[in-house]
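User: Last request for today: this protein with flavin mononucleotide, please.
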Amino acid sequence: MFDDIREFIKRVKELEGYKLVEGADWDLEIGAITHIMIETPDSPLVLFDNIKGYQAGYRVVSNMFTTPRRTALALGLPLVDLKGLSLVRAWRDRLREEVKLVSPAVVKTGPVKENILTGDAVDLYKFPAPKWHELDGGRYIGTGCMVIQRDPDEGWVNVGTYRVQVHDKTTATVYMAPGRHGDIIQRKYWDKGLPCPVAVSCGQEPALWAASTWSIVPWGVSEYEYAGGLKNKPIEVVKGEVTDLPIPARAELVLEGDIVPPEVEVRQEGPFAEWLGYYGYSRPVPAFKVKAILHRNNPIIMGAPPFKIQGRQIFNKPTMHSALTWNELDRQVPGVKGVWIAEEAATSILIISIEQKYPGHAKQVALAAAGINITGYMVRIVIVVDDDIDPSNISDVLWALGTRWDPATSTDIIDGCWGSLIDPRLSPEKKNRGDLTHSKAIILACKPYHWMKEFAPAVTISPELLKRVKDKGFID
Ligand SMILES: Cc1cc2nc3c(=O)[nH]c(=O)nc-3n(C[C@H](O)[C@H](O)[C@H](O)COP(=O)(O)O)c2cc1C
Ligand SMILES: [Mn+2]
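Assistant: Here's the final one, the structure of the complex with flavin mononucleotide:
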């Protein structure tokens, strides 16, 4: 695996090349080009240099992990045959092993301290933070970022990915959804009447960033240690300049300072594009007062904003969530042969293939999946198919829906499920009442268990017949 973002980009360049864009404007052009490149078939990594108004070398990178191949490269999975269900299967196997925690190693100094800006030299506008989407409320320096905080009571260090908007030379905001570890920690400081010290890394090695985006790292466990475990090697950190927080020694750009309590100062954060593919809301968020900026020579800001289909840019969806769901289902029910979360549906459609073993088995699997922590949230449709269907092959799944699903008898609607304020389908009335729930459809697109044997045989070529025509040399 890689020790910094530069190593990863260099390896991508050698393996498959990337798209270098020179002269783009931070104001919407970087965002539009990124969006277009995500949707091109080979989705190359995009590196922006000579950004309008900025010195050469101050770069932005996007589309880092868009393809299954770059995801596998970033996280040390084999590069062969990793598409669809085989990538999910590789993840499932990897995540089934307990990750051994490895503490970070504190080093005296590192490349992140090549430039240290404090006092009057602090100026967030020195860096080409993009305005990514047309209706965004401002420029975001942190999208592919990590926010580092120490729990004031327990002493451990949390690392989480929460977006960071620039408001003026020394003021930013960090948007942490209620319940995020970082949010719980900042409130602990505020409750004591104190500002919350934070360090924000805006470009870092892939494994560490992965750990900071995966909600599987529990409260009380540092993502630094989890990432060290994934790599089987300690992450090197240096002590901050104005906080005593550990900072990745090879990070590209780090902002250090305090998030003040809400009664001291707030700024209007957003709106910003959300992962469902729609804009969210603007809200008041406590000010992040930046007191020091550390950066490498010619820093690279990592961008990972959501677009219409966000799952491709980051490696936690759909493959990661599919793998986690599969592992969880294996603990609950037998016979699960594949799990797939359809990114085309903003990850709101879940498809599970099973080998049906007893009456009620298919519905049991669907109900289990509809309730667990990963897919219980915001999944609208759960589809169960037989194990001759590859759940990652959407045309296979549509064939099963078109031929094995009886809407009248094999559909259930479950209302009042765990949802979100960013659900575009939440009616204004429900939103005003604070009712953030949505409904789910459970669809059994599999052969009915009790007359499965009588179900018309599917048209296929048997392995014997296939062998025969191959052996005779008609095909290879
Ligand atoms: C690209 C990306 C951007 C994210 N942005 C935010 C965000 O702005 N606010 C937020 O609360 N969570 C955001 N998340 C989700 C959190 O990073 C994720 O839930 C993480 O596990 C939180 O860490 P924690 O459990 O230590 O709080 C984002 C995730 C990704 C992959
Ligand atoms: Mn955490």
